[in-house]
Amino acid sequence: MKRALLSLAAVLLAACLPHARAEVVHTEKSLYRNIVIYEENGVRCMGFGRNGVGRQTCQIIAAPDKLVFAYTRIMLGALYLNPEPREILVIGLGGGTLPRVLRKLRPEARIDAVEIDPAVSRIAGRFFGYRPDANSRVYEEDGRVFVKRQLKQGKKYDLVILDAFDHDYIPEHLLTREFLQEVRGVLAPGGVLAANTFSTSKLYAHESATYASVFGEFYNIRQINRVILLRQGGLPSQAELERNAARYETALAPYDIGREALLPLFKAQPRDWPADTRVLTDQYSPSNLLNAL
Amino acid sequence: MSTEAILPSPAVPRTRDTGRLRRALVFLIAGWSGFFVMAVELLSGRLLAPSFGNSIYVWGGVITVFMLALSIGYLLGGQLSLHSPSLRRLGALLIAAGVSTLPVVLFGDTVLDALFEHVADPRWGTLLASSALFFVPTVISGTVSPYAIRLLVTHLRASGRSAGLLYFVSTFGSAAGTLATSFYLVLLLEVNQIFFGLIAVSCVLGALALPFGDQATEDAA
């Protein structure tokens, strides 16, 4: 018992240490959360919450184009599914990592980013060098409302990136069948959805069942985060994936993204959740409770 | 006090025991009404989120409308209690609050869709949507507490204690309604199922009070 407590203490200490060494460069209370910008070992991160646990965005200060998080590299694999997105929607700006990289990869694309927290979009500019330009805009509003409005106006996107989930809080209305149907409604034919979601907890099965109920097949890439990648009208063939991957090999190299690492992840897998899993809907969406179970 | 008011109600003859039963029912109704209002308020956020999001403005709008409606309800409830107050009428108020929530379930989506079409700003949308759907039931719910206090107060000297007890019960009910809804009910049931359940309980509790007529004799005691 004593040993167990000691090792627990050691684990907790180890978990806290990096933050103890980190230098906090900026803190801010926004309408929604405590935002902490801290730097350690040449990496600048944005965290939410008291100690800035749960890194939202990190950037290597000397090499801002390097991608710190594996999940962002996998999400950019969306280009293997649709290599020429012209209209891009990013829900959840964070530090603006994905729109910044997409801007470099697709200079002519229109990029709409939606961020609910005005403080976060300010910080994306001030600390992470995200600059909207003539062809990209940041909308400070709720992602659900934005999508619904675009749907009503008949707007279509070739790539939708859903990155609005925190490690400990889920906007539940962005994880329901109705929302995903609205997202499907704004996807152009062949349009791709890349979602950064959850890999553990009881929520996993419900989330999987919900995506499957709206989109059918998807690439289910489970690492530390879980990335869901899918294409309107069906997943591509292996040959098509390989063609697109080859085409992007040089452009994606600076971001440490390559076909060798990514292509093996893009495999249709058998469903690994119970067939009778309850689908999340606007009527039934206890995502935060499920995530805690 | 009119002589008529001193006569016991024909439905339930007045005894010391029914006096206790009456008080228990008054507290039960007030506590449930508190539960009901907060459960509905929490669920209203869920109903509005698909159309107007979950931003701080939405919660601001929802809470504003509920507080405004409650404040008007308190005023009305106080006024209503001046005219031959009875447990039966308190029960009727609870039933009315429940039944007036039915349109939320039946026409909620239609109203929200229409507002989404015509109102671009989620702040106005939220204020209008929560007014359209929740103002009436919440006003009626607001009448319950002051009306209940009137039924409890038998002596001027004890009026503060009765009011305190009533506030305790109704606010405790609110806390229970908030917790039960957000921690448990949404995990088990769909939003509309919870609404139906809340309405059903209001109707049953209100109906329990219907046989109890005029309360005014307790003033004479």
Task: Identify the notable features of this structure and list them briefly.
heterodimer, A: alpha/beta, 7-stranded mixed beta sheet, 11 helices, globular, B: 221 residues, 0% strand, elongated, disordered N terminus
Number of strands of chain B: 0
- Which class best fits the helix and strand makeup of chain A? alpha/beta
**What is the strand arrangement across the widest sheet of chain A?**
7-6-5-8-9-11-10
Major sheet summary line of chain B: none
Mean pLDDT of chain A: 89
Q: Low-confidence parts of chain A, pLDDT < 50 over ≥5 residues? A: none
| Radius of gyration from the alpha-carbon trace of chain B, in angstroms | 19 Å
Write a structural description.
The complex is a heterodimer of chains A (293) and B (221). With 293 residues, chain A is an alpha/beta fold. Chain A is built from eleven helices and eleven strands. In chain A, helix 6 packs across helix 7 and helix 7 packs across helix 8 (203-215). Chain B is an all-alpha fold. The longest helix of chain B has 37 residues, at 16-52. The relative contact order of chain B is 0.22. Residues 1-10 and 215-221 of chain B have low confidence and may be disordered. Chains A and B meet through helix 6 of A and helix 2, helix 7 and helix 8 of B.
Question: How are the elements arranged and paired?
Answer:
The complex is a heterodimer of chains A (293) and B (221).
Chain A: H1 2-21, E1 23-29, E2 34-40, E3 43-48, E4 55-60, H2 70-76, H3 78-81, E5 87-91, H4 97-105, E6 110-114, H5 118-128, E7 136-139, H6 143-152, E8 157-162, H7 177-186, E9 187-197, H8 203-215, E10 219-222, E11 226-231, H9 238-252, H10 259-262, H11 287-292
Parallel strand pairs in A: 5-6, 5-8, 6-7, 8-9
Antiparallel strand pairs in A: 1-2, 2-3, 3-4, 9-11, 10-11
Helix pairs in contact in A: 6-7, 7-8
Chain B: H1 3-6, H2 16-52, H3 56-80, H4 87-99, H5 102-118, H6 122-152, H7 159-188, H8 191-209, H9 217-220
Helix pairs in contact in B: 2-3, 2-4, 2-5, 2-6, 2-7, 2-8, 3-6, 4-6, 4-8, 5-6, 6-7
